[in-house]
Amino acid sequence: MSPSDRAAQISSHLNWPTGLLAGQLAIITGSGQGIGAECARLFANEGAKVVVCDVDSKRSDAVADEINKQLGDKRAISVPGDVTDKSYFDVLVKKAAEFGNGKIHIIVNNAGYTWDGVIHKMSDKQWETMLNVHGTAPFRLVRTAAPYFRVKDGEPRCIVNISSTSGTHGNAGQANYSMGKAGVVGLTKTIAKEWGPQFGVRVNTVAFGHINTRLTAAKEEGAFITTASGERIALGIPGKQLSSRKGDESKPSYPDIALGRPGTATEAAKSILAVCSPLFSYVTGQTLEVTGGRGM
């Protein structure tokens, strides 16, 4: 057998004719920038149709347009909206199913941000907002999309809920964020137990450590998010705190990370792609920490 024939046989056997996610439809929340946007690009490159959604409609539209321009095909649509608005999910799921010819295969619950404060000064609004964004929103999306996952058509179905080491280990100043991200782990395991036996749905959590995004940049850089109510929330880590972690700013060091550096948004997205791919076909109910070895 020639090498080309052997490659064709392997491709046919693994059912990856045009990519790891060929023929699948993926919803990726918070995909207007950062890790979510990188996921959208990677998923589309691996053959999936992608539904880009973000609270910032301009960013959401831009990512979808970029994907379609690059691939020369209608591979992405933008469905912007606020995940704290419970009416949004009916619209999102309906448009996603239409785009996927009646099917949805993948959900990546990635949308989120931080609203930090020490426990004794944290407001109820800070607390409730983070639980809503990181816990209630993923639950509502999964519940709304249930009819497209509780099916027996022999096609793969996968859900990835994004968490953080703040959720798996806790983090000072992030009681609200840590609570939301810890809850995601329990949600993941419960969906896996309910939808795995009859429908073969795989559900996993990916918990990130220090990834270079606007959430881990210096707060002084001015990144912010505007909530649906119009409140502007500053994002990032105070510069003094970052300096104390890094030491000499001319040669930043990360002694708590085995690989000696933060991860990139692309590296983070690749881990999500891997979990959604056939390579992880027998992995469900797990929490994969993507940290570069931090916290060992």
From TrEMBL:
This is Ketoreductase domain-containing protein. One of its GO terms (molecular function) is quinone binding. InterPro entries: KR_dom, NAD(P)-bd_dom_sf, Sc_DH/Rdtase_CS, SDR_fam. GO terms for biological process: fatty acid biosynthetic process. It comes from the Eukaryota. PANTHER family: 3-OXOACYL-[ACYL-CARRIER-PROTEIN] REDUCTASE, SHORT-CHAIN DEHYDROGENASES/REDUCTASES FAMILY MEMBER. Belongs to the short-chain dehydrogenases/reductases (SDR) family. Residues 24-198 form the Ketoreductase domain. SMART domains: PKS_KR (SM00822). Keywords: NADP, Oxidoreductase. It holds the Pfam family adh_short. PROSITE patterns: ADH_SHORT.
